[in-house]
Design brief:
The complex is a heterotrimer of chains A (385), B (349) and C (360). Chain A has 385 residues and is an alpha+beta fold. Chain A has helices at 49-57, 79-82, 99-108, 140-154, 169-181, 199-216, 227-233, 251-256, 261-266, and strands at 3-12, 23-33, 38-42, 64-69, 72-73, 85-87, 111-115, 133-137, 187-191, 219-224, 236-241, 244-249, 273-280, 283-286, 289-293, 302-308, 313-315, 321-330, 334-340, 348-353, 361-367, 372-375. In chain A, the strands form five sheets. A six-stranded mixed β-sheet of chain A has the order 6-9-10-3-11-12, sandwiched between helices. In chain A, strands 15-14-13-16-22 form a five-stranded antiparallel β-sheet. In chain A, strands 17-21-18-19-20 form a five-stranded antiparallel β-sheet, with no helix packed on it. The model of chain A has no long low-confidence stretch (mean pLDDT 85). By secondary structure, chain B is mainly α. Chain B is built from 17 helices and one strand. Chain B has helices spanning 2-13, 18-27, 29-33, 50-90, 94-97, 112-120, 123-154, 160-170, 176-188, 205-214, 221-233, 236-244, 249-260, 262-278, 281-286, 296-302, 313-343; one strand at 40-42. The longest helix of chain B is centred in the first third of the chain and has 41 residues, at 50-90. Chain C has helices at 2-14, 31-60, 78-84, 128-160, 165-173, 180-190, 196-200, 216-245, 248-256, 261-289, 293-299, 315-324, 329-354; strands at 96-104, 109-114, 119-123. Chain C is globular, with a radius of gyration of 25 Å. Chain C is built from 13 helices and three strands. Classes of the chains: A alpha+beta (385), B mainly alpha (349), C mainly alpha (360). Chains B and C meet through helix 4, helix 7, helix 8, helix 9 and helix 14 of B and helix 1, helix 2, helix 4, helix 5 and helix 6 of C. Strand 7 of chain A pairs antiparallel with strand 1 of chain B.
């Protein structure tokens, strides 16, 4: 099912008497999540991504705007009427129920819809001419079978009789996913699903989420502050800042073509290196070095911020860029150089292959032009090139 | 252990284990016939359109809040009605009270009931007795409670946990177990010449009766527990800092801990005072010799129960109000402390 | 409060376990000082709690115990037998057993031979088995569940509203700060045969609740209503503060799981409140086994004397009656011990039953 957010706004009213202004947690958000896709909402904490998710779930009421599931406006519906699955940040498993009961609980609240057939097996129609259906509660056996099948999908069969507090974080997380999946929702929402897991488990679980999502084909929205996590599994990402959407698109596309300085800075580890620069004669300069020629269009001369991705700087004895390398961090496959440059806004970090021999001190480099961006100094610091 | 015993019982009665049952269940034809992939699961209302659901939901919400508020309002009336009735009955004449038609407001407002109460029921004396007993026993309780709570919260000694557990366990023992012997004890203590009303020492008989209403109540395990919890929340760093500054435990207790725990101490003070005001059984026992030594509650029940057969409800209620109003005033002024102190019991910790 | 229960449990468990020796640590410098701090409490408890506890048990087994002289005729089970068979003030110092007495319904006296073979008469006063115990049990099993259910309902409603919550909360707490005797007297006015209740429900002035002529069942209904009314505020306060401590997230999860209001209540609220429910259950069980002042407040006396058709005696009322007479003190001690045992048994049962249902 497609999810459409139209002009979605959440405003926490301030107190005019005390001079506290209204706070916009989410401001005029328009997003369409295509059917069957996995979309990641990405942003630093406080950017309104969780608020957005909770509004989609119905746990928060939007101040303005509409939420559509398919061709239905669900803005005013309570969460229990939306039939969605939600995985909470810290899972919110019922501590007093066993895993089995946790997973079975949603099923006990649902009905099963069956077509009404006549003796010959033909579909009966109701007064409006629609196919007639009847609803009934699920039997114990049906619940059991669904629970066990779902448990198999998320691999928690061996824990079914345990209580949540007897499980590790990763296991609890899978139980939470099972509880969300068990009712076969049209929409699955995940709120920072990996934040409580350790690094190794995180890698494993995010693959799991991807696998489950693809096998079930449920439209999924998930929220994270970890850009790597979002980029690795999302079909599409939406980068947000202070309640406003910054950029949306296929992860690699967003990474390669960030629309402004915020997005460029937010995506990528280590983050992009920023320098004071200028554009003169359709060339981008850092200091007096040209880092990139502009061929696509004519840009008027101006001062700007230049961003260079860490992987865009290459150690090259013949290079023209001079860095003062202060520290070498060994990271296994790569090494990272923490360097200084007179025009840099902060320490420059760049990654090079571990077999390249470098020493602390002066390092000569070249820059890959397509890893360089120039951002305006005004307003939203949009990308110039 | 639990698992073992279950296994044993299962074997004993030839019961099936959970795994066996599950396997049987899964083997059954009906179970296998269930086709989960083709199931359509819907919410209770089915595939009704969203606008309809939203409308039903709105109606449901309104009905829900009407029921909620209606219920709460109804219960508040039940809760408050006795108070209202007490007030208006105290202003009615006996003929009006016992009349065939009950009035929700007195036909003639009769203040004389209150005058009668002051004339026949020695309210001032009883209140004086109650205040003496209440204040002295409350102060004593506060002192013992502070000392004990400090020891349990801050100091280390052998058997601390054991003693604390024993103290808590005493809360489960019905006071009636103690009353009998305590009655005999106070009767035998040097200050109380039982049965004769003669005291040789520096205490008069009346003093000794009062002492017997005070001293046994100088300890309250529950308040020790309450204050200990409060003391424990005071960060250890403060204690260590005070140690570094050369303060003794004693100074630290009175200069740091007691001021910080002031809200709890106020709660204890008020609750204990209210407890004295309401105490009935023990004073009834030890003041049997002289009615003028009684506390306010004892005086209340024994007065004007009958006058020529008919109960004088108007006067009774006037007296009841005089007993109840001080409590309500305390409640109005110290609502926060009282509710916090009482509610503390239910919170984990 | 879970902590208190835990500690008490630990204590009972620890009685049978050998305590491991605590290794000496720096804190032990405080050792003797700590005992100084504890001294007042320990001395007072020793005199007014621990000694009485033991002494009461001893007295319960003494024959012809006289508390002014402290003398007795040695060990006996008679006190318990008296409590469980025929009890009350006797005309002689001796007691007689039911199985060799004749009962005169007019004068309400038993006549017979006492254990020493002397003829004597016993006024029929009270019968623990016939009145005090059934009354107490009935009060307990009616008022405890009723007040818990009502208090839960009120707390959940209170918790769900936003407007006027504070006001309602205060209103529901008011009965807590009242005097049981005083309000009992107010209820006596309400339940008077010419009182407002009979007037509102049009029962006429010959429908008796608490008067001497009232049937036992009416008296019991009035008493239970009063006890529930008076015990609600504490429970509401405890439940409400516990409700406010439940993580809102579980309710969100229940909504996502499509659970209705009732289902959420049964599957989320009640289990989450279970420690408080257990605490309230145990304390109010103990409390209502000791019901006394409410009877005094409502009825003045339990109307066991001349001509009353009902008997509102409770166990504790019986104990206090026994204490007032020097010759029945030992019987009171026996009754108190029995009460203690009953309370212990019920508390143990509740702990046992709750083991699987309470989630700390």
């Amino acid at each position: 099912m497609e999810i459409r957010l139209k002009n979605l706004t959440k405003c926490f009213p301030g107190n005019p008497k005390k001079g506290i202004p209204d706070t916009y947690a989410v401001n005029a958000l328009d997003i369409t999540v295509p059917d069957g896709k996995l979309v990641g909402l990405l942003g630093p904490s406080g950017c309104g991504k969780s608020t957005t998710l909770y509004m989609i779930a119905g746990l928060l009421e939007p101040s303005e705007g509409e939420i559509w599931f398919g061709d239905e406006d669900v803005t005013d519906l309570e969460p229990e009427k939306r039939g969605i699955g939600l995985v909470f940040q810290n899972y919110a498993l019922y501590p007093h129920m066993t895993v089995y009961k946790n997973v079975a609980f949603p099923l006990t609240n649902l009905r099963i819809e069956e077509k009404m057939l006549d003796e010959n097996g033909n579909q009966l129609l109701d007064e409006d001419g629609k196919p007639a259906v009847k609803r009934r509660k699920l039997t114990k056996d049906e619940i059991d079978k669904i629970v066990r099948e779902t448990a198999r999908v998320v691999q928690i069969e061996q824990f079914l009789e345990r209580k949540p507090n007897q499980l590790s974080g990763g296991q609890q997380q899978r139980v939470a996913i099972a509880r969300a999946l068990v009712k076969k929702p049209k929409v699955l929402l995940l709120d920072e699903p990996l934040s409580n897991l350790d690094a190794r488990l995180r890698l494993q679980t995010r693959e799991e989420i991807r696998r489950i999502q693809q096998s079930t084909g449920i439209t999924t929205v998930f929220v994270t502050h970890d850009q790597e996590e979002a980029m690795s599994i999302s079909d599409e990402i939406v980068v947000m800042k202070l309640g406003v959407e910054q950029q949306r698109g296929v992860p690699q596309e967003v990474y390669n073509n960030p629309c402004n300085k915020f997005v460029a800075n937010f995506l990528g580890t280590p983050p992009i290196n920023l320098f004071k620069g200028k554009i003169k004669g359709n060339k981008v300069y850092v200091g007096d070095q040209v880092v990139r020629d502009i061929t696509e269009k004519d840009v008027p001369d101006q001062d700007c911020t230049v961003g260079i991705r860490p992987e865009g700087i290459i150690v090259d004895p013949n290079g023209t860029f001079d860095f003062e390398c202060g520290r070498i961090l060994t990271m296994g496959r790569d090494i990272m150089l923490m360097s200084k440059h007179p025009e840099a806004l902060s320490d420059t970090k760049f990654l090079i292959d571990a077999f390249v021999q470098v020493e602390v001190g002066n390092v000569k480099c070249t820059v890959k032009p397509h890893k360089c961006f120039a951002f305006s100094l005004e307003g939203d610091e949009l990308r110039i090139i | 252990m639990e698992y073992d015993s279950r296994n044993f019982i299962q074997k004993l009665f030839g019961m099936k284990s959970r795994e066996q049952k599950q396997a049987e269940r899964e083997a059954s034809a009906e179970y296998q016939a269930i086709e989960t992939s083709s199931m359509t699961l819907v919410i209770k209302e089915g595939h009704t359109d969203a606008a309809q659901l939203a409308r039903a939901q709105k109606v449901g919400k309104i009905i829900g809040s009407i029921i909620t508020y209606g219920f709460l309002l109804f219960m508040s009336v039940i809760i408050l009605f006795p108070f209202y009735w007490m007030i208006i009955t105290s202003l009615k004449s006996t003929t009006e009270i016992r009349g065939n038609v009950q009035t929700f407001f007195p036909v003639t407002v009769l203040w004389s009931n209150y005058i009668t109460v002051f004339n026949t029921f020695d309210f001032v004396t009883y209140v004086g007795n109650t205040l003496i007993v209440g204040v002295i026993s409350t102060i004593g309780t506060l002192i013992t409670t502070i000392l004990a709570a400090f020891a349990f919260a801050r100091l280390n000694f052998h058997g601390k946990d054991l003693i604390f557990s024993i103290l808590l366990a005493t809360m489960m023992i019905p006071g009636e177990m103690m009353v009998i012997t305590n009655y005999i004890t106070v009767a035998k203590l040097p200050w109380y010449e039982f049965g004769h009303g003669m005291v040789n020492g520096w205490l008069t008989y009346k003093d000794s009766v009062f002492a017997s209403m005070i001293v046994p109540f100088w300890v309250s395990v529950f308040y020790i527990y309450l204050l200990r919890q409060n003391f424990k929340q005071i960060p250890n760093e403060l204690y260590l800092a005070a140690k570094v500054d050369g303060k003794s435990d004693w100074q630290f207790l009175w200069k740091v801990m007691v001021p910080l725990a002031a809200p709890t101490l106020i709660s204890i003070f008020i609750l204990k005072l209210m407890g004295s005001w309401n105490s009935y059984v023990w004073p009834q026992l030890v003041t049997a010799k002289d009615e003028s030594w009684r506390l306010v509650t004892n005086g209340l029940r024994s007065s004007f129960s009958t006058s020529a057969g008919e109960p004088q409800y108007g006067i009774q209620m006037a007296a009841t109000i005089l007993v109840t109003v001080p409590l309500l005033l305390l409640f109005i002024f110290f609502r926060k402390y009282i509710m916090k102190g009482v509610g503390r019991a239910g919170i984990k910790g | 409060m879970a902590n208190v229960l835990g500690k008490v449990k630990d204590f009972f468990g620890g009685l049978f376990k050998r305590k491991e020796r605590v290794s000496a640590d720096a804190g032990e410098r405080n050792n003797w000082k700590a005992w100084l701090y504890l001294a007042p409490v320990i001395i007072l408890l020793a005199i007014f709690t621990f000694y009485p506890l033991i002494n009461t048990v001893v007295i319960a087994f003494l024959k012809n115990y006289n508390y002014t002289t402290g003398l007795s005729d040695g060990f006996t089970f008679d006190n318990f037998l008296n409590v469980l068979t025929l009890a009350g003030r006797t005309t002689t110092q001796e007691t007689i057993y039911r199985w060799n007495t004749t009962y005169d319904a007019v004068t309400k006296t038993y006549t017979g031979i006492d254990s020493d073979g002397i003829a004597c008469t016993v006024y029929f006063q009270t019968d623990v088995i016939k009145y005090a115990l059934p009354n107490t049990m009935l009060i307990t099993f009616i008022t405890v569940p009723a007040s818990i259910v009502i208090a839960l309902l009120i707390s959940v409603c209170l918790h769900s509203i936003k407007a006027f919550q504070k006001i309602f909360q205060t209103i529901f707490f008011v009965p807590y700060v009242t005097n049981a005797i005083a309000v009992g007297m107010v209820f006596a006015v309400l339940f008077d045969s010419k009182g407002i209740l009979n007037y509102i429900f049009n029962l006429g002035d010959s429908f008796f609740w608490i008067d001497r002529a009232a049937p036992w069942s009416h008296g019991m209904i009035a008493l239970c209503i009063y006890i529930v009314w008076h015990s609600l505020p504490y429970k509401i306060l405890i439940f409400l503060s516990a409700l406010q401590n439940i993580d809102k997230q579980y309710y969100d999860a229940a909504k996502i799981d499509c659970a209705g209001k009732f289902k959420t209540f049964m599957n989320v609220t009640v289990p989450m409140l279970s420690p408080q429910i257990l605490y309230i259950m145990i304390t109010s069980f103990i409390g209502s086994f000791k019901e006394y002042t409410s009877v005094v407040g409502l009825f003045g006396s339990p109307s066991t004397d001349g001509g009353s058709t009902k008997n509102m005696y409770t166990i504790v009322y019986y104990i206090y009656d026994c204490i007032k007479q020097p010759d029945t003190v030992a019987r009171g001690a026996a009754a108190a011990l029995l009460l203690f045992i009953i309370i212990m048994i019920f508390t143990a049962i509740q702990f046992q039953v709750s083991k699987k249902r309470v989630h700390y």
